Amino acid sequence: MILTKAQYEEIAQCLVSVPPTRQSLRKLKQRFPSQSQATLLSIFSQEYQKHIKRTHGKHHTSEAIESYYQRYLNGVVKNGAAPVLLDLANEVDYAPSLMARLILERFLQEHEETAPSKSVINSMLRDPSQIPDGVLANQVYQCIVNDCCYGPLVDCIKHAIGHEHEVLLRDLLLEKNLSFLDEDQLRAKGYDKTPDFILQVPVAVEGHIIHWIESKASFGDECSHHAYLHDQFWSYWNRDGISQCCSGWCGTPGLSDSSASASQSAGITGVRKHFLPGILMKCVCK
Amino acid sequence: MAAVLESLLREEVSVAAVVRWIARSTRGSEDNPGEAAALSSLRPLRKEFVPFLLNFLREQSSRVLPQGPPTPAKAPGASAALPGRPGGPSRGSRGARSQLFPPTEAPSTAAEAPLARRGGRRRGPGPARERGGRGLEEGVSGENLPGAGGRRLRGSGSPSRPSLTLSDPPNLSNLEEFPPVGSVPPGPTGTKPSRRINPTPVSEERSLSKPKTCFTSPPINCVPNSQPSALDTSPWGLGLPPGCRSLQEEREMLRKERSKQLQQSPTPTCPTPELGSPLPSRAGSLTDEPADPARVSSRQRLELVALVYSSCIAENLVPNLFLELFFVFQLLTARRMVTAKNSDPELSPGVLDSLESPLFQSIHDCVFFAVQVLECHFQVLSNLDKGTLKLLAENERLLCFSPALQGRLRAAYEGSVAKVSLAMPPSAQAVSFQPETDNRANFSSDRAFHTFKKQRDVFYEVLREWEDHHEEPGWDFEKGLGSRIRAMMGQLSAACSHSHFVRLFQKQLLQMCQSPGGAGGTVLGEAPDVLSMLGADKLGRLWRLQERLMAPQSSGGPCPPPTFPGCQGFFRDFILSASSFQFNQHLMDSLSLKIRELNGLALPQHEPSDEDGESDVDWQGERRQFAVVLLSLRLLAKFLGFVAFLPYRGPEPPPTGELQDSILALRSQVPPVLDVRTLLQRGLQARRAVLTVPWLVEFLSFADHVVPLLDYYRDIFILLLRLHRSLVLSQESEAKMCFLNKLLLLAVLGWLFQIPTVPEDLFFLEEGPSDAFEVDTVAPEHGLDAAPVVDQQLLYTCCPYIGELRKLLALWVSGSTGRSGGFMRKITPTTTTGLGAQPSGTSQGLQARLAHAFFHNQPPSLRRTVEFVAERIGSNCVKHIKATLVADLVRQAESLLQEQLVTQGEEGGDPAQLLEILCSQLCPHGAQALALGREFCQRKSPGAVRALLPEETPAAVLSSAENIAVGLATEKACAWLSANITALIRREVKAAVSRTLRAQGPEPAARGERRGCSRACEHHAPLPSHLISEIKDVLSLAVGPRDPDEGVSPEHLEQLLGQLGQTLRCRQFLCPPAEQHLAKCSVDLASLLVADQIPILGPPAQYRLERGQARRLLHMLLSLWKEDFQGPVPLQLLLSPRNVGLLADTRPREWDLLLFLLRELVEKGLMGRMEIEACLGSLHQAQWPGDFAEELATLSNLFLAEPHLPEPQLRTCELVQPNRGTVLAQS
C-alpha cells in the first residue's frame, strides 16, 4: 500500500505538537480511518522524533531540568497517584519517557550524590521496580507505557519489527528462489558495513537493477530517506555495485511490486507503509 | 644562511618554525612573532637554506668519511650566483659525478699525471681548488669565481672549514698534506660534496688512472665492458654496465687492486684522535673506532641539527631522499675520525659561536647524529628490503645508541616479507614470427618481403654474435658488427620495411630487456613472467647464487648515471652503429605509440574489501602485471629518450650566452617527440602518477643540457617538483597514495634531480609550491596511486641504487676497509638434498626451456590461455582448500574445544593457550593441503584448457598445453599454500575459538537449548512486535490516565494471551530481546490482574474482572511461563514492592488472587517456596500504610502455614469454587 505525498503531508500536518500518547493516536485514527493504525503510528513516531530532535536542547538546560524537577516534587507531594510526570511532559511538549529519564537522573543525583551511570538509568527505566522511590517508580512506569514514540518498550518493538521483517524478507527471497548472502555471511567475509541481503545474482525489476536489499523498520519519509542514503547506502554502493536498489519489504509480497511503485511515487521515493506490521520501502536507483 | 642555523642552535627559534620557514614561502600564521621576526630578516636567503644545510653537513662530516665515498649533494652554490644560467661556465665546477673513493684511488704510479689535465678535465671543486684554498695554487687552479666556494661555503661563509685545515701552518714537507703535484690530495680534501658518485670499478683501466668524467662510456674502441666511470669521449655519454665477467678475472683484478693499495695509500688517517697528530696508517691495518653514546660531545646541538635535517628530509625539501639516507648511513658506519687540529679557534674572524666548533667532534657524535636522524625515518627504513633491515637491526652501533629503534627495526625485519632479488635472469629468445603482421600482404612487393625476411635473419645473427662475444675482452661492437648492421640497414629502402624492422626491433627489445635489470648476458632461457615459476625452486637457488657472483658490486653509488645494463647495451650499440636517421625516426614513432598504449592501459584496480586471504593470490597477479607494464614503459621510454635526444648530446660543454639563446629559440620550435607534458598532466589527474612518472623520469634522464631550459620541459619539471614536494611520506593520505608507491616516486624523482643535465638550481630555485599540491582529479576516488601496486622488488628493480644502502651496511659488517669497494660475499654451499621424485635442477631448467620453446612456436593466444587457466585454477584451488580442508579443520577445532571445555570445567583455561593447543594439533594437517591442491589442479586444469582452446588444436599440442597449465597452476597454488596454509588455519581456528568461547560466554543459561517451532508450524502466529504493542496498550490503559469510556473486554484479554502463546510457540520471528520484553510485560499484566487494576469494558456496574475470569487468565499466564517461554521470566517482580503496592490502592483489598498465584507458582515449580519466602520477607522492609503492612504479614503467614505439597485435587476444587473472602475475613 502506497501513500501519496499529499496524503502523507496531510497526516504530518495533523501531528504538529501533539503529545505521543494513546489518546492522540486514537484521534488520529478517527481523522484518517482509511489508514491502518500501524501506518499512522509509524508516521507519528517519525514526525515526533523529528520534533524532539529540534526541541531536545531546550529541555536539557540545567534551569529547565531544575524547574521540571521542582514541579514534579510539588505535584507528587500534592497527589502521588495523579499522573504528575505524564502531565508535565505533555504540558511542556516533551516525550514522557524522556521526561521520566530526566527526572530520574535528577532524582538519583540528589539521592546518591554521584552521578548515576547511563546503564543504571537504562536498567531502571526497563524495570522501574529498581527505582528506590516507589512513587517515582510508578510515575516513571506510567510515562513509559503511555509513550508511543520513545522508551524501552518502543525500542523493543522497533527492534522486533526490524528482525521480523528481515525474516520475512529472507522467506520471500527463498520463495522467489533468489540466491543471496545475508548479513552474517557477509560479516564473516569481512564486510564492515553490510546491507541486510546481497543478491548473488542481481535481478531487474521494471528496469531497475537490484543488487542488494535493505529493510528498514521505520517509515520512509524524505528526511530519513536522505539520512539513510547518506549514512548507509552510499557505503554499500561503494562496495557492492554500480547500481542497486534498496528495498524493504512492504506488506505485499513480491519484490517487483515494491521497488517499482516506490520509484514511481514522485518526490518521495517510496513513501510506504508501515510502521508496525509494515515497513519502509526505499529505493535507490543510480 | 649560517645565521639561521645559529639562531636555531641558540634556541631562538624552534625547529618547527624553521621548517615552516623553509617549506613555505608565505609564513604560516602559527609562527610565533619573535621567531617570525628573527627569520623574516633572513627571508631572501630562505631557499638557500637547504643547500646550505646539506653542504654544511657534508663538510662537517668530511673528517669522518675520508675513506668512504663522499656523498654527493646537489646543491647549488656557485650557480646560485648565476641563476638562469645553469648551463653556464659554472656548470663544470659542479663536478658532476665525483669518484667513489677519491682519496684512496690515487695511485702513486699516477703521480706523473699532469695536474693541468686533471684540473682541466674535472673543472670541479676538485683537488685543485682544494689546494687553492690553502693559498698554494690559487693562480694555477684559476678557480676564483665569485662565490665559487659557495658549495663548500668557504671563506667567511664557512666558519668551520678553516677550523679543520687552515689552522695548520702549511707544512710543505708533509707529503700527505701537500702531495706531489699530480696526485690527488688525500683525506678530507677529496670529499667534495659533488653531485655524483662513481663506483669504484674493479677494472683494469684503473691502472691508467684516467680522470673520471661523468656520463662517460667507453670510446668505440675501448673494451666494451669497461665501467661507466671510465673516460669516454663518445658523444653518447653512456657507460656500459659493469658487465659480468668471469669470476677468475674479477678475482685477479681484486688482487691487483689490493696490492696496489697496499703499496701506496699515504692516507692521512689517524686512528686515534687523541694522539692529535696524523699518523700515516696503512690501509690494511685500519681499526674501527668504537662509538660510545656516553661520549657524545654536544648532544643538544646535534639533536637540533638532526631534527632540522630530518624535518627537511621529511618535508621533501632535499632533492633526493635516498641520497640523504646514504649519507646518514655513512655517518653511522664511519670508521674513524681524522684528527681535527682545531686548537686555534680564532682562526677565521667573524665566526659565529655555535658553528665555530665542528659539529662532529668524534665518531660518537656522528653515530649519535645518524641514529637521531634514522629514528625520524623509521617508516622509510621499515619499508626497505629484508636484507637491509637485517643489517640495520644487527648493527651494534644502532643497538648501542638507540635500543628502541633497534627493537622496532628488528620487529620490522621479522615481519618483513620483502625479499628482493635483483638479478633476474634475462631471456634472450627471439621474437617469434608474427603471422598477422609479418606476412606478404603487409609488404608492398615480394622483394620487400624477402628483404625483410633476410634482415630478420641478419638481425638475429648479429644478436647471437653479440651474445657470444660481448663479454670477451677486446671485442668491440662497432668493429665486430658495425659494418654488417649498416649494410643491413642499407637494404631497407622502402619506408614500410623500416617500420617492419622497427617493430621487430622493439619486440625483441621488450622481450630481452623487460626482465628487471636485464643484467648479465648469460641465458638461462627463462621468461621473467609466469614461466619462471616452473621449477622455481632449484632454478631460484641457482639464480641467487649467480646473482651473488655476478651482480655488479656497485651500481654506481646512490646516484648512478643512466646506463644500459645487460642486453640493453646491444640495442643501444645497434642504434649507434646503424646511425640511420630513417631507422631512428621509425623507432621513435613506434616507441611513442607503444608508450601511449601501455600508459593508457586500464590496469585492474584493487577492490577495497575483497575476501582477504585468497585475494592475495589474485592480487599478486595484478601486482605482477603492473610491474611488467611499468618496466616495459620504462624501457621503452629510456630508448625513446635516448634516440630523441641523441642528436643534441655531445661531449662538448653546453653552450652559453648568446649561442645558448639562439639554440633555445631554435629548439623551442621543435615539437616534442611525444607529448609527455600532457601525458604527465593526465596521469596526475587520473591518479596514475605511479605508472606515468617512473617512465617519464627515464625519458627525461636522457635529455641534453638545453632541454630543461625549454618552456615545455620546464613545465614538466615544475610539475614533477611539485609532485615531489607533495609526496610527504609521513602524511597518511587516506586513499591517495600507498607508501611504497610514494617511495618509488621519491626515489626516481630524486635520482632525476641528480642527473647532471638537470640544472641543480632547478630544485632549489623553483619557488616551492607553497600550498599543497593539488591536481583537480577527474578520476575515480581510487586511482592506481592508491592501490598497493609497488612492492619492494619493483622498487629495487626500478631503483637499484637504493641497494647501495645495503652495501654500505654490509661493508661495515664485513669489516673490509671499503677501499676495495667490495664487501665480503659469503656463499653458503647448498647441498642438493634429494627431494623425492622431483626432477633434478637441470632437468627442471630444461623443462622450463622446453615450455618456453613450445609457446614460442604457438600462437600467442595459446600461451595467454594457458597462463590464464593456470592463474584461475591456482586461485580456485586455494579457495577450494579453504572451503574444504580448512573448514573441516575448523570443525574439528570446534569439537576439540568443546571437549577441552568439558574436561577443564568452568575455567576452560586461557583462550590464548587453548588456541595454541588446538593449532599445534591441527596445523600439521595443513600439509595435506599441498597434496589436495596438486590433485585439484591436476583434475581441473586440463578440462579448462581443452574448453578454451580451439577444437582443432592438435592432440599433442593440447596435451602439452594441459600439462603446462597443470604445472603452473600447481606451482602457483602450492607456493601460496605452503607459505600461508598454517597462518590461514591459525586465523580460522582463532576465529572459531573466539566464536565458541563467546557462545559459551556470559549467559549459558540464556542460550540454553532453544527449540525452534515445530515442524508443522506455518509461521502464521501474530508477530511479536504486534503483541508487545498490544500488551503495552493494555498496560497503559491499566496504569492510566484513561478516559471514562476506555477499557478492555475480558475476551480481548483472553485472546491476547492466546496469541501470546501462539507467538511463543512459533519461534520464527522471535528474537531474544522481544521475548524478554514479552516476559516482563506478561509479569506486569499478571500483577495488574492480581491487583484487579485492569479496567473492563462492559456494563458500567461491573468495572472489575470477575474472580473466575481473573483466575483463568492467571492460569493461562502460568502455563505460558511454564511451557512456552524459553528465556527467563522475571517472576520475582510479582513480589516487588511496586507491584505488590498496586494492591494497596484497591479498596477493598483482595488478597486471594495473590495467594492463588503464589501457590500456583510453587506448584508448577516456577518459583521455589524459599524464594517466595525471601521475597515476602524483603517486602516487609518497605514502607507501607499501617493496615497494609498488617495484611501483608497475614498473607505471608498464611502462605507459610500451608502444607508444602498440597494435593492437586484440592487445588482443582479451589479453582472451581473460589473461596472468595477467606483472606479478607482473616484480615
UniProtKB/TrEMBL annotation, chain A:
<dbReference type="GO" id="GO:0030218">
    <property type="term" value="P:erythrocyte differentiation"/>
</dbReference>
<dbReference type="GO" id="GO:0005737">
    <property type="term" value="C:cytoplasm"/>
</dbReference>
<dbReference type="Pfam" id="PF14811">
    <property type="entry name" value="TPD"/>
</dbReference>
<keyword id="KW-0963">Cytoplasm</keyword>
<dbReference type="InterPro" id="IPR029404">
    <property type="entry name" value="CDIN1"/>
</dbReference>
<keyword id="KW-0539">Nucleus</keyword>
<protein>
    <recommendedName>
        <fullName>CDAN1-interacting nuclease 1</fullName>
    </recommendedName>
</protein>
<dbReference type="GO" id="GO:0005634">
    <property type="term" value="C:nucleus"/>
</dbReference>
